[in-house]
Amino acid sequence: MSEQTIDTEKLGEEIVRVLKTIYDPEIPVDIYELGLIYDVFVNEDYEVKILMTLTSPNCPVAESLPQEVNEKVKSLDQVKDSEIELTFDPPWSQDLMSEEAKLELGML
């Protein structure tokens, strides 16, 4: 395993740590545990692409949440650039939530 591979993997973990500090304003669970983050890509140039969704297309934070994700990810020293792609395919459902999130919301 090259040093670079470990670096991007480590950066991926840092990104997840940052994502876990961002909360959906309507649900007291972070967006990562909520299942709103579908994928995090980091290339060898430390450019990040995040594929995410919202709980609904009419979500009141449809504008601000992706922007907050982008700003927080870009604030990491190693990240050169960050791009957020919103998708509603597949649409978000409660099945995407982690056990932790379901427990937090009293669904287990």
Automatic annotation (TrEMBL):
<feature type="domain" description="MIP18 family-like">
    <location>
        <begin position="13"/>
        <end position="85"/>
    </location>
</feature>
<dbReference type="InterPro" id="IPR002744">
    <property type="entry name" value="MIP18-like"/>
</dbReference>
<dbReference type="InterPro" id="IPR034904">
    <property type="entry name" value="FSCA_dom_sf"/>
</dbReference>
<dbReference type="Pfam" id="PF01883">
    <property type="entry name" value="FeS_assembly_P"/>
</dbReference>
<protein>
    <submittedName>
        <fullName>FeS assembly SUF system protein</fullName>
    </submittedName>
</protein>
<dbReference type="InterPro" id="IPR052339">
    <property type="entry name" value="Fe-S_Maturation_MIP18"/>
</dbReference>
